UniProtKB/TrEMBL annotation:
Gene3D superfamilies to which the protein is assigned, alphabetical: Nitrogenase molybdenum iron protein domain
Leader peptide range in chain numbering: 1-32
GO cellular component term of the entry, any: outer membrane-bounded periplasmic space
GO biological process: iron coordination entity transport
Similarity annotation: Belongs to the bacterial solute-binding protein 8 family.
Coiled coil (UniProt feature): none
InterPro entries: ABC_transptr_periplasmic_BD, Bact_iron-sidero_bind
Localization of this protein: Cell envelope
Domain Fe/B12 periplasmic-binding: 74-345
Protein name, per record: Iron complex transport system substrate-binding protein
Domain of life: Bacteria
Keywords of this entry: Signal, Transport
Amino acid sequence: MNITYPGRRTTSVVARVLTAVAALAFLGGALAGCSSASGEEKTNPNYTTEATDSFPVTVEHKFGQTKIDAEPQRVVVVGLTEQDILLELGVTPIATTEWYGDQPYAVWPWATDLLGDAKPAVLDQTDGLQYEKIAALKPDLIIGTNAGLTKETYQELSKIAPTVTSIKGSEEYFSNWRDQTRQVAAAVGRSDAGDKLIAGVESAYTDAAAAHPEFKGLTATFSQGTPYEGNLWVYPDGINTDFLTDLGFNMTQGLETYAPTAGSQAQISAENIGLIDADVIVFATESPEGIGDLLKFGTVSSLSAVTGNHAIFTDAELAGAIYFLTPLSQKYVLEHLVPRLVDAVSGVAPQSTEG
């Protein structure tokens, strides 16, 4: 899988190029009446918790602020990862959005137990936001903190139902996971629970880092697993790299110079592969075939991290958990990646997705 837009990835098989969609004028009148802010009481039978905040609540975000009059019961996720946050808060969305991986209901294995028997509708942003399908679901809240929303698409969604986006100053797809968690939790009236999710993940990283002081100060690089369009897509410091820095690693510096836009991945050509060498490299490969393709690209096979068995080649689920970077997926990352990092630091990491 390879990214072709800021913050996320796509492949020639499953393209996920999220384009800014022009406002659909004819939808305005038809959708304006679909919001369920009428005060009508509804109960979502799949919720496992109750709101602790008092409604109405107002959530500030990059496009202004959104008032939510009552606890939402029909939550639609138009972003790529927010279902994780909602499910861990005990709030089951009525619709999710497919990103990649073709997981049932767009919910990955680390979250399926929380989904239970619910069967949310699945949206797709390949050709833009599906306004009519969203409206037909009659949501009373739309969550899009990781949806690449523009002001125009936010305004269109707001005609359907109250819509919450990422905070002011955030990137379209790299909004900080803590900020996203707080936004989502506030929107569904579970602010305290959101704070607890964040604190739990931070504590888990602190414990893992303390248990492995050998990580501290070592350099690390995080890269997608196979080249795309003549480049390897590598993550500069601060772009989806918390899962390594929170364990004590220092990210390889200078890669942002090769990012086409601020906040996006660096595009490293075959002749520049030496720039990614580090004490440890994590490649988000997803199959044994992906490892083969990667090792044939430029000088990857001769990097000291690769020849010294300091490189990790992930399987599909671990790669997905790293890309999601939600509180829930990070617990999966800690469980499955830390033992592999121990091997990589020790120089005994195998060239295998199985670890």
